[in-house]
Amino acid sequence: MNDMTEQRPVTDTAAQPVLPDAQTVTSVTHYTDRLFSFRVTRPASLRFRSGEFVMIGLMGDPDPRTGRQKPLLRAYSIASPSWDEELEFYSIKVEDGPLTSKLQHIAVGDQIILKPKPVGTLVHDALLPGKRLYFFSTGTGFAPFASLLREPETFENYDEVIVTHTCRDVAELTYGANLIADITSDEMMIELLGEENLAKIRYYPTTTREKSAKMGRITTLIESGELFTDLGVPPLDPATDRAMVCGSLAFNKDIAALLEAAGLHEGANSEPGEFVIEKAFVG
Ligand SMILES: Cc1cc2nc3c(=O)[nH]c(=O)nc-3n(C[C@H](O)[C@H](O)[C@H](O)COP(=O)(O)OP(=O)(O)OC[C@H]3O[C@@H](n4cnc5c(N)ncnc54)[C@H](O)[C@@H]3O)c2cc1C
After folding, report:
1. Which residues form the FAD-binding FR-type domain (predicted)?
2. Residues with pLDDT less than 50, the chain
3. Distance from the alpha carbon of residue 90 to the mean position of ligand 1, in angstroms
């Protein structure tokens, strides 16, 4: 929690019109002019596996002819773990984006629409057992890993959990950096996940534009072998390594090519494999 976060108990939302599948915003945190996170109430009926996504949104503008409003929905990874009593989302702000030009202005007590039908491939069920788990992300592609990093199963299955997050600027790494600092220092999280499990996390943030401790695209750092040297681990090996990937289409394609070249095969819910991929956005 910091001064960028607005949070207060939700007591009275009676003044607002009731939306279909409405959930109430309980906190909002802004990181940069392009990134924010928020938490909402969780529908009692919603069950999901950490790493899945749902459709969320707001009512669109009234149709100028009919005056009718339609829901404006977009896919969003649930950033909170499956056991959390609320739901967390980590969002981009696209200036002219139909949804996020509005969503970025939500405040505590506002309502959003949430379709309680979770789906996705960034789930443990889609991976074969392994020794080392890589989370490769760019930008808001960190969101599903924010969920999985708070899920005990992530640590039960692996000896090491290597989290790479690449953004243009250092400030864009804040959400992920804070989350990892919080889970490794918060007493409740230490008790839930276990100190020895949290010690399995190897966090590897990189920037592509602003100068930082580690610069460069993760694909370049894999190709050069620098990632493995820095972490003191062997190069990718299908016998031991598993990966989950979440970024732009181009990023996913490049990482998939590197993983396949190392002998890893893509998995799915119906047929677990050595790596799985999800788009962080379309376009
Ligand atoms: C499976 C899946 C999961 C997703 N999870 C998330 C999530 O957890 N958080 C999130 O912010 N978005 C996520 N998205 C993207 C999200 O669905 C919307 O595209 C985003 O909220 C912007 O909506 P919009 O209506 O404002 O603009 P849109 O019309 O949807 O997008 C306009 C343009 O903005 C760019 N853009 C959209 N989303 C992003 C992004 N996240 N990062 C960088 N550029 C982007 C693209 O170039 C896109 O063409 C996900 C998309 C998919 C397919």
Report:
1. 18-125
2. 1-3, 11-14
3. 11
Q: Does 88 contact ligand 1 (Cβ within 6 A)?
A: no
Residue 31 Cβ < 6 Å to ligand 1: no
Q: What is the pLDDT of residue 5?
A: 72
Question: Domain residues for 50?
Answer: 5-119
76 lines ligand 1 (CB under 6 A): yes
DSSP 201-227: EEEEEEESSS--SSBS-HHHHHHHSHH
Ligand 1 mean position, distance from CA 41 (Å): 22
Side chain identity at residue 73, one-letter code:
L
Name the domain count of the chain.
Answer: 2
The answer to whether the complex's ipTM is over 0.90 is yes
| Contact (CB, 8 A) for 187 and 146 | no
CB of 244 within 8 A of CB of 275? yes
What value does the CA radius of gyration of the chain take, rounded to a whole number of Å? 19
Counting Cα atoms < 13 Å in the Cβ hemisphere of 96 gives 0
> Model-level pTM?
0.94
pLDDT for res 13: 46
Cα distance between residue 33 and residue 35, in whole Å: 6
Per the listing, tokens 């506002």 go with: 110
Selection from 24, 26, 76 nearest residue 51 by Cα: 76
Helix (H, G, I), strand (E, B), or coil: what is residue 279? strand
